[in-house]
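Below is how a single chain appears once it has passed through the pipeline. First comes the sequence as given, then the structure the pipeline wrote out for it. We keep one example in the README because the format questions we get most often are answered faster by looking than by reading.
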Amino acid sequence: MTVLASALNTADPEYREHREAMLAKLAALDTEHAKALAGGGEKYVERHRGRGKLLARERVELLLDPDTPFLELSPLAAWGSDYTVGASLVTGIGVVEGVECLITANDPTVRGGASNPWSLRKALRANDIALANRLPVISLVESGGADLPSQKEIFIPGGAVFRDLTRLSAAGIPTIAVVFGNSTAGGAYVPGMSDHTIMVRERAKVFLGGPPLVKMATGEESDDESLGGAEMHARVSGLADHFAVDERDALRQARRVVARLNHRKAHADPGPAVPPKYDEDELLGIVPGDLRTPFDPREVVARIVDASDFDEFKPLYGTSLTTGWATLHGYPVGILANARGVLFSEESQKAAQFIQLANQRDIPLLFLHNTTGYMVGKEYEQGGIIKHGAMMINAVSNSRVPHLSVLMGASYGAGHYGMCGRAYDPRFLFAWPSAKSAVMGPQQLAGVLSIVARQSAAAKGRPYDDEADAALRAMVERQIESESLPMFLSGRLYDDGVIDPRDTRTVLGLCLSAIHTAPYEGARGGFGVFRM
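Resulting structure:
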């Protein structure tokens, strides 16, 4: 029998303590998500509604097939910055006429939907996801272009948005623009470079330069409609492929365009999805508040994989890393999950072999993070921890099967790299509210700085100020702690979202479904040199 047995005791005081701590983190997360949902605030939302317009998420909802999920991506973008949480853009994956699509929607209640540096990063991340997974892109457009005060951070890199649209089209991935309002200056190239363009009567305004700019540049008098209105583009310029009488009609027409795309998945339908044996609600109490306390990742695996059925690989070797095979919503997956935080040489070699096997079998990999990094110390350096850690990172880097990552607890140092952190291009990466990620833990980092400072003072023959040292250590610990929290990292788009642990199986199932739209094949070699 390969069904995982659970040792979790939900009546244990420690479990209850962990659960309460997680619920508190989720409440704080809900508060931040509410800021993104609020857009530009009540004043600007009411002004937008007063013009008879739908909000960005209402447009998305009407576009999607009824009663289907929408996996919103990067909802906390710009958190902790000077810009509105959400970065005036909604992105995510949803089903339209039975086709999984990557959807972006400008939020015109936030500075007219103008793009700031975080909007740009969010849009580029969405394009990367669409290209990697061959998802049609639907852009719900209403934006005044770049947020001019921050143009120095947008103009040069911003051209990649238009480049991506043409590359998607060249790769045979459909792109559709639905224009509800302003799409001006550089923003005019979104409908201009999309395969299909729909414009709303008396609402859409698509031009490189509006009437004031035209007057300044050429002396010509013009108005919005004759210069860039939907009817002009439908009848005269030919930029509009479809002319909609209102927003709902535009969304109806967008659905019809998708229905005629003949866009199909590259893989056969998955097998049957059997729910786990254990309650997903129990995921709330597994991760300790103090991430230095280990927990058994099998308890997590048992609550996310089909039938809690898990064939473990090398269970008696390298026991700080759990590896094995399962299915999730009918899709086969190989799982690597940190058990006790530290990665030793045995774990590294075990991981490299397991990744090679997944590539031989064309099986996607799921990385469940709770690692403080690779082990340090004279014994481990002499035992080859560098070359063995490099072997694991080499395998992750050159693996060609799709990767998914979930940060459950700690994800520090090179362990973050070996477990397929953001820099290693996982198809999707999500974090739990309990996760933390940095070069090392706050106490360790502050301690290292203290030791170096003491050694420097001793080398120069100077006395060391212990009081100043304590203050410095406390300040550094606070800084690193705040910068390693999931909302801070998500605000910088180092993940695709912070999720409720209870939603993990659903989120991963949606991601696996999207992944299987594109063909893939594992590496049969080409891993580079493994130091033995």
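Residues 103 and 482 are 32 Å apart (CA to CA).

See the next section for the split statistics.
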